[in-house]
Amino acid sequence: QVQLLESGPGLVKPSETLSLTCTVSGDSIRSYYWSWIRQPPGKGLEWIGYIYFRGSTNYNPSLKSRVTISMDTSKNQFSLNLNSVTAADTAMYYCARVSDAYNPMTYFDYWGRGALVTVSA
Amino acid sequence: DIQMTQSPSTLSASVGDRVTITCRASQSISIWLAWYQQKPGKAPKLLIYRASSLRSGVPSRFSGSGSGTDFTLTISSLQPDDFATYYCQQYNFDPPITFGPGTKVDIK
């Protein structure tokens, strides 16, 4: 059974960098594309971007200038860095597996439980 | 970007009711649409992909239909476990992937 678990600080100061890690178990991170998705409190879902183990990434244009997604295959983990955060970046951050091993633009079949990150001084 | 809309935003229904949620895309996305169920404090769960394909393990009372710009999610007989928020998601080739704003199904 594929499981994903997000980890990282729950509180980040404005203008600083939000950093989260997703640890994958039950599957090799080399086998699929992996994504980050966020959800502000009481609001809808926003796709942040994806990564593939060969280094391929793609980001939502609305966040592209501030986002980096990276991968550590030795730990079966991938990470999210979002810099210059503001209160608008307060959200539940989910990591998810892209269902198709060959096409990153598809749906998400496994999700982590989410990590709430609050941006506040 | 492809914009997704859903209607209604909230739906009040009773156990046993037939429920239909509509999702509309701002341009044609063929059949590249998924539906998710989300309960409070939980991650979304995939229900349907490719507009009408039921994910393994999802009850058969859930069904999806549509193509192009107009899609529907139907719950044939609403069960107590189905009270949740439902999101559609398009994945038509080009990024970004986008989601609808959600439809909350609550108890009448």
What does this 3D model show about the protein?
The complex is a heterodimer of chains A (121) and B (108). Chain A is mostly beta strands and 121 residues long. Chain A is built from no helices and 11 strands. Chain A is globular and about 40 Å long. Chain A starts with a strand and ends with a strand. The mean pLDDT of chain A is 95. In chain B, 0% of the residues lie in helices and 49% in strands. Chain B is globular, with a radius of gyration of 13 Å. Classes of the chains: A mainly beta (121), B mainly beta (108). Chain A binds chain B through residues 44-47, 58-62, 94, 99, 105-109, 111-114, and chain B through 1, 32, 34, 42-46, 49, 55, 87, 89, 91-102.
List keywords for this structure.
heterodimer, A: 121 residues, mainly beta, 7-stranded mixed sheet, 4-stranded antiparallel sheet, B: 108 residues, globular
Helical residue percent band of chain A = under 10%
Number of strands of chain B: 11
Cα radius of gyration of chain B in angstroms:
13 Å
What fraction, in percent, of the residue positions of chain B are helical? under 10%
Which word captures the global form of chain A? Answer: globular
Q: Characterize the biggest β-sheet of chain A.
A: 7 strands, mixed
How far the N terminus sits from the C terminus of chain B, by CA atoms, comes to 36 Å
